[in-house]
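Figure 3 (text version): structure tokens given as input.
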């Protein structure tokens, strides 16, 4: 069997059935050709080697599937899918073959809370440890801490349509808190602080839709701990939120039990 060669790469043929590295050496992150040698620049990359890319459509679809699996609507679009198919996704979503264990019930509640705020497991653990140190019920403290996140308050005030859009607004440096630019979605807003959109960004389409009230009918009712002026794209946290006022679907005591057993 002949190997495809190029003179400038100085390929060395295998000796005793063992491939020998070519000279000069090429970076290890380069895919390997079928002959066991490092792939030269002109060697075509097969579809199996090429890295898979996640499209926007698949990400949207996974969000709706997650909503159906958890039994809650994470986005306005997911709410429509959940009305049509109020059961878990997959081939066996309509039929449930066995009852959930106590661990599975607690795990699902924890995943529900995570998904509604769009946070990582490490972020939820940090918030739980802080809630446990505070006075009062740990579960209620946990939700109240998460509700003061900047991205969560943007959704509650109907400036953003979803948590993902709120995070994008913050990371792209469109949001100010008391006149100071904030680019961290996990920023904790304190009572009395004013959230508003940067003047240069007010004319963009997403904020024009929000100022016209385009998200009000799709989101839960404005909670009493917020004062919002949508036409000015402003929201003020009047006081610390209470668990009974927060529109989050979760049995927080099960979340506490989940972490207490870990």
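Below: residues designed for each position.
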């Amino acid at each position: 069997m002949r190997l495809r060669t190029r003179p400038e790469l100085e390929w060395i043929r295998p000796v005793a059935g063992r491939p020998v590295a070519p000279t000069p050496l090429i970076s290890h992150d380069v895919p390997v050709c079928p002959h066991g040698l490092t792939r030269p620049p002109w060697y075509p990359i097969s579809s199996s080697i090429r890295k898979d890319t996640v499209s926007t459509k698949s990400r949207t679809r996974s969000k709706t599937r997650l909503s159906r699996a958890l039994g809650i609507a994470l986005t306005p679009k997911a709410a429509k899918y959940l009305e049509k198919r109020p059961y878990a996704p997959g081939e066996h979503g309509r039929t449930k073959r066995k009852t959930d264990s106590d661990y599975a019930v607690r795990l699902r509640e924890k995943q529900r809370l995570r998904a509604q705020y769009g946070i990582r497991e490490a972020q939820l653990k940090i918030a739980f440890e802080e809630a446990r140190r505070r006075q009062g019920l740990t579960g209620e403290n946990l939700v109240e801490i998460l509700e003061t996140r900047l991205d969560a308050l943007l959704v509650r005030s109907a400036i953003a349509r979803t948590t993902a859009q709120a995070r994008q607004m913050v990371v792209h440096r469109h949001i100010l808190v008391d006149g100071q630019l904030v680019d961290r979605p996990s920023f904790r807003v304190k009572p009395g602080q004013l959230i508003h959109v940067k003047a240069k960004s007010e004319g963009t389409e997403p904020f024009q839709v929000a100022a016209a009230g385009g998200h009000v009918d799709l989101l839960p009712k404005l909670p009493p701990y917020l004062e919002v002026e949508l036409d000015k794209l402003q929201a003020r946290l009047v006081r610390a939120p209470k668990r009974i006022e927060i529109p989050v679907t979760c049995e927080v005591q099960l979340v506490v039990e989940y972490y207490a057993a870990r």
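The radius of gyration is 26 Å.
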